[in-house]
Structures are given as structure tokens and as C-alpha cells.
Write a sequence for this structure.
């Protein structure tokens, strides 16, 4: 597979997009929101887009072989397993104790 | 002992330079996946404690200097731009561009660490450190609402110890995560210095310069970690 050379113009456009998204995420954090978790959700969504731009363009994954895609996505999948299953436990601890009270009254 | 027509950089167990380069990039990505799990453990701990102690985390986060962190985000994104220009310089065989882009990346990396150190000094001055005794000197408000909901008289003089422990957890995670990130920056900076020396000696050719690419991947990975640290530590409200 021959090396793909990305044009400097592409890099500059991605950089401009990253700066705009940084301004956007700072701006969004200053807007008062009713629901505090919404701030976190918006910030993480913007962070996800920024990380995606860096990984695809700066780290050349967009132009890489399927094997590189597999390792990059595999890393993300394992991170998701770590966080999602841990949070699944913490978020449902109250509901477990409620269920125990309903089905196993002492 | 290279046979004629054999590239001097090609190791004997590879067929072509491209195959050799591909396997180096693959190895780097596997290493980065393990790095992701190293930071992932901290991100998980952060998520759990943010979920359990949301009020304390939001209040502790709001005491950090967001403008400095935002400036640092711009500095780090800029250093990623100079890094991709270094890779481009190596690809097209422009040694001047390669060396100056690497030097630019080093300068921006040092600026990032300088701002971070300033921030740590300010935090420490304001008693924002993972020590309950020093955190007790800070004025906290978030616990009052919870206290009033439980019909407990809010003593305005003293913050409950449980709340101080919750803010302590935030600062523990803050120093551990930004500290581990800064350690990665230092490693990245040392690697960049090695690249500048190699580039000056003319070690990189347009056909073969994987060292520049691999250090680039590492540098961008550190950038991606910061892209998530910034909103999680500074932008929760």
C-alpha cells in the first residue's frame, strides 16, 4: 500500500474546524441549562467530534488499512465496555435494592 | 549484508519497506490501544464519582481556571497541526519544513506545560489540593441545599467533612489525570528532540521515515486525551 500524502490545505481546514469546536464547547458551557447533565452531554459530543477529526485526519486513519481501523475501533470498544458496564452497575444499585424489597421482604 | 537493490533501512524479515512501515504503524496503534485503557481506568473512575457526587464535582470544577485550560486546548491543537506538517515535510522530503515543524511542536508543548504549571501553582495557592484540611479553608456552597432538604440546620461556619471528601476526590482525579497527561507530554517532547537530531543528521528520506509518523501518532493521542480532559474537568456546570 503506497503512502497517502494528505494536502496541507486539508490539515489547515481540520485545524480551523477544531478551533471552532473548541470555541463552541466553551460557549455552550457558559449558557445556563436547566438540566446539568445536558452540559456534560453537549461537551462530550463536541469532544467526540474533535477526537474523531484528529484520529481520522491527523492520525491518518481515514487513509489507513482495515487492520488499523480494526485496532482503533477495538480500543474504543474495550473502553466502552469498561465504562458502560461499570456505570450499568452504579446506576442500577438503587433499583436492585428496590427489587429485593419487593420480592424478598425480610 | 544487504543484497544489491536492497534498501539499507529494510530489515531482513520484511519483504518491502511498505510492509515494514505498515507493521510499525500497526504496533504503534496496538500500543495506543493499551494507553487508552490506562487513561480509560481514570476516565471510568471519574465517571463513577461524577455520577455519585455530582454537586461536589460541579462546584470543585468551577473553582479551576477555565480560561487557562481553554488557552491550553488551543496550544495543544496547534502543536498537533505543526506535528502533521512535520510528517508532511518528511513525506515530501523538505528537511527544513520537517525540522522547523518539529521545533514548533516542541515550543508549543513547552508552552502547554508552562501554562499547566502556572495553573497548578494558582490551584495550590487557592487550597485546591486533595487535602481535606486545606479544602476546609475554601468556601463551599453546594452542600447547603442537600442539608436543608434533609431538614438539618445548615451551620454556615463549617462544611461537612463528607462534602470535603467528595471535592477531595475531584482534585485527586484532576491531579492524577492532568499529571499523567503531562507525563505523556514530557515523553513526547523527549521523542521530538530525538527526531530533530535524527532529521538534522539526514536520517529521514521521503521513502522511509516511520519514526516521524509514530511519534506523530503518539503526540496526537496525547492531544485526543486532552480533548476529553478539558470538558470533563473544566466545563461541567
Amino acid at each position: 500500500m503506497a503512502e497517502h500524502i494528505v494536502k496541507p490545505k486539508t490539515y489547515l481546514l481540520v485545524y480551523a474546524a477544531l478551533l471552532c469546536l473548541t470555541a463552541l464547547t466553551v460557549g455552550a458551557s457558559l449558557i445556563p441549562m436547566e438540566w446539568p447533565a445536558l452540559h456534560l452531554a453537549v461537551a462530550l459530543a463536541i469532544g467526540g467530534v474533535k477526537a474523531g477529526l484528529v484520529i481520522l485526519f491527523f492520525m491518518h486513519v481515514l487513509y489507513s488499512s482495515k487492520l488499523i481501523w480494526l485496532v482503533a475501533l477495538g480500543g474504543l470498544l474495550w473502553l466502552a465496555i469498561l465504562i458502560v458496564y461499570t456505570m450499568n452497575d452504579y446506576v442500577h444499585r438503587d433499583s436492585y435494592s428496590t427489587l429485593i424489597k419487593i420480592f424478598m421482604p425480610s | 549484508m544487504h543484497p544489491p537493490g536492497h534498501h539499507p533501512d529494510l530489515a531482513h524479515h520484511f519483504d518491502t519497506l511498505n510492509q515494514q512501515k505498515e507493521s510499525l504503524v500497526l504496533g504503534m496503534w496496538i500500543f495506543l490501544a493499551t494507553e487508552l485503557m490506562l487513561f480509560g481506568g481514570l476516565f471510568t473512575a471519574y465517571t463513577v464519582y461524577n455520577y455519585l457526587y455530582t454537586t461536589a464535582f460541579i462546584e470543585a470544577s468551577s473553582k479551576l481556571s477555565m480560561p487557562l485550560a481553554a488557552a491550553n486546548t488551543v496550544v495543544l491543537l496547534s502543536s498537533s497541526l505543526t506535528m502533521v506538517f512535520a510528517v508532511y515535510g518528511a513525506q515530501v522530503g523538505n528537511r527544513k519544513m520537517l525540522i522547523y515543524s518539529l521545533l514548533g511542536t516542541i515550543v508549543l508543548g513547552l508552552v502547554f506545560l508552562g501554562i499547566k504549571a502556572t495553573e497548578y501553582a494558582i490551584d495550590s495557592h487557592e487550597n485546591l489540593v486533595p487535602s481535606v484540611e486545606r479544602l476546609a479553608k475554601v468556601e463551599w456552597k453546594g452542600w447547603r441545599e442537600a442539608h436543608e432538604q434533609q431538614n438539618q440546620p445548615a451551620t454556615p461556619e463549617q462544611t461537612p467533612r463528607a462534602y470535603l471528601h467528595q471535592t477531595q476526590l475531584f482534585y485527586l482525579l484532576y491531579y492524577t489525570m492532568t499529571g499523567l497527561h503531562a507525563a505523556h507530554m514530557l515523553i513526547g517532547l523527549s521523542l521530538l528532540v530525538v527526531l530533530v537530531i535524527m532529521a538534522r543528521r539526514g536520517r529521514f528520506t521521503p521513502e522511509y521515515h516511520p519514526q516521524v509518523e509514530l511519534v506523530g501518532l503518539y503526540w496526537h493521542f496525547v492531544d485526543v486525551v486532552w480533548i476529553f480532559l478539558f470538558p470533563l474537568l473544566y466545563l461541567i456546570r
Notes: The radius of gyration of chain B is 23 Å. The mean pLDDT of chain B is 93. Chain B touches chain A through 52 residues (CB under 8 Å). The longest helix of chain B spans residues 161-200.
